[in-house]
Amino acid sequence: MELNDFLNLVALKRKTIFGIIAIFLILGVGVIAVQRFKYSSSSQLLVVQEYSQNIDAYTASKSNEYLSSVLASVITSNSFFSKVLEAGFDIDANYFGNTPKDQMEQWTKTVTAKNINDSGIISISVYHPNREQADKINRAINYVLMTQNTAYHGSGDAVKVRLIDQPITSTYPVKPDILLTLGLAIALGFLTSLIYVYLTPLTNLPNHHYGQHVLYSHPEQTNQPSDQGNFLRENFSNQGVNNDLIGEGGYNDEILDNNSNIDDLARQASMRNILR
After folding, report:
1. Which end of the chain is more exposed for a tag (fewer CB within 10 A), N or C?
2. In 3-state terms, what secondary structure has residue 251?
3. Contact 87, 144 (CB under 8 A)
């Protein structure tokens, strides 16, 4: 199928395309509706280690990177979760469930921690349906890292964790991402509709298309304006139903209901012979 033919199909089936996009939008809204809206709270901490004067900068940098990676990993552990609940920030423990398995599954969904390259910086993000709880959990994590980090490395008091970015809590929910979800729904709906139009070019189309056998009918005419009109009627009339192949120089699919249509058909036939 040529590009122009496909664009014509898209124009003819625009209502179908809009309908498919609308269906995907409804599905996207459904996906958003079944999810819990969550606020976010983010902060950053810097891991600092005391070194002797003889150590080079590269070794110090790699050591900070290692320590920040270790501390970021232990944040999602069960022992760290327990320390956060016991930090005294009035965190709702019921949100995480009653069994250790449920608690860890919910904790890993709530907290995200990662070290940023080799900078020794730990980035922490907390997601919670309650904005106040998200802020409290973030502050509790920061507090445990700064005061009890020695439990997770062997460098003792030589390692310090310092808060460099205070927790910033979103004013509105950030999960699920409504704009992203609806945008993906529109894009997928449009792509699906194009595939549907391409695979079903013959469905409910009022006009003929290139290389396509179609049926049309016309009433019998007794008076012909020209011999060429008689020739066309003899060759294309079959009890009021005609089978026409639309190709280069093909005929229109209009019903031959008057003499002017016969003339138009004759002129098209002559033009096709000339072009050949």
Report:
1. C
2. coil
3. yes
